[in-house]
Amino acid sequence: MRYHALIRTHHITSRKKVAVLKRAANTHQCAVLLRSGGCPGIMYVEGQDQTQVESWVSAVRKLRYKDFQLVTRPGLLEPEESDQGTDDLPSGLSEVESVKDFGSWMQRRRVWHWWRRGMGYS
């Protein structure tokens, strides 16, 4: 079983905050994907148990990001049916620079429709 959550912020530009997020991902043994560099800032977290994911989300809250929105609370990951395989998110923190790249990752993880609902696209 795996758990995941989705966070949206105004932007993610501070390298100091990204370093804190990276340490938190390693500490809580989560896989994290960030869309950084501009608006919107998007964070996806995945972990082996709900406590890991909730702890990482708490670390994000403490950073007081502008327009912090926990759009999808930590919950059980239920992969969607898809012909595409699942690329495992590497443990720790990974970054992408565009929403399109972030969406591609979500599609490969088989959480495309879940992500689109969370972002308000559908």
From TrEMBL:
<protein>
    <submittedName>
        <fullName>Uncharacterized protein</fullName>
    </submittedName>
</protein>
<dbReference type="InterPro" id="IPR059181">
    <property type="entry name" value="RWDD2A-B_C"/>
</dbReference>
